[in-house]
Specification:
Length: 344
Amino acid sequence: MHDARYADSQAPDRFGRWLRDLRISVTDRCNFRCRYCMPREVFGPDHVFLPRSELLTFEEITRLVRAFSRQGVRKIRLTGGEPLLRRQLDKLVAMLTEVDGIDDLALTTNASLLAAQARALRDAGLSRVTVSLDSLDADRFARISDTRVPLSRILQGIATAEEVGLAPIKINTVVKRGMNDGADLLELAEFGRAHGYTVRFIEYMDVGTTNGWRMDDVVPAREIVDRLHARWPVEPVDSDYPGEVAQRYRYRDGRGEVGIIASVTEPFCRTCTRARLSAQGELFTCLFAARGHDLRALVRGGADDAELERRIQAIWGRRTDRYSELRTTEANRARKVEMSYIGG
Ligand code: SAM
Ligand code: SF4
Ligand code: SF4
């Protein structure tokens, strides 16, 4: 799978996986307190977020993306915390569209600020958005996301994104037992079918150490597919590209597709080509890594481009992560980084 567009120094990790995707967290802040991600007891008024000086600047992010692209990255996803809280995010998008080798530039957002920013993001060159939404019931939405932002504002954000052409729109729904595994599941699927959005149901994961995860709270992918199938028959679709995380299904009646991300019950570490860059410039080679590698220190310390690339390559080349495959083993009980810190 060597690609001539990239530096010759490029190499796969210890398990033969190439570096292809980079998720960039642009802020650790969020205006929601989703129970499974940033529970208010932990992320309360006294929680200290990163000061601005700690965050990578847009210039620093762009420089790193150039180095990552030379090391094989083709897809960039901006995330957070809530990425639209980062001021002038459209400027960063415009800068990243100039980087050679990046084929796809996407954004994951809770959509609370999307209606206001969708046009500027599209004009800057953003390819598409994924919106996280766990319920279409206004009260349940408010409870799950623990926010005063009304559901109507999220729906408006999605509609505006579609209007300006940030398509195809994907909706990410974390499914948690007792939270939204009842009517919500089918309502969200129906919403996707009606509007042509691909809904992707995600198994609730044990990211970080604050969400009190228990295996009993996971609704297995199989159960989700069976529920959908009983209502609107579905059939599997081949994945688009190696490393695609969602299992894809098409509705037999032709009303689009639905995806399932079975991170817990059917892990996909074997094909994981994804790295993550935290808001303060640490490189994480796994969503469940306990620690990152400080690239900001290199950038701010005056490293040249070749040095940045060498460092990225060295870190990736040593990678042996496969947390989801080992989830229940003893070695895995260590402290992990929070999802809001490195993005989903
Ligand atoms: N704030 C943005 C949003 O919610 O779309 C971007 C960051 S958020 C951390 C990225 C994704 O991670 C969201 O789709 C969210 O639902 C998902 N997520 C957070 N905690 C999770 C968990 N414990 N299990 C599965 N997915 C989770
Ligand atoms: Fe915020 Fe996204 Fe985490 Fe919800 S999932 S608390 S919106 S970062
Ligand atoms: Fe990739 Fe780590 Fe997730 Fe496995 S657990 S798929 S290695 S991010």
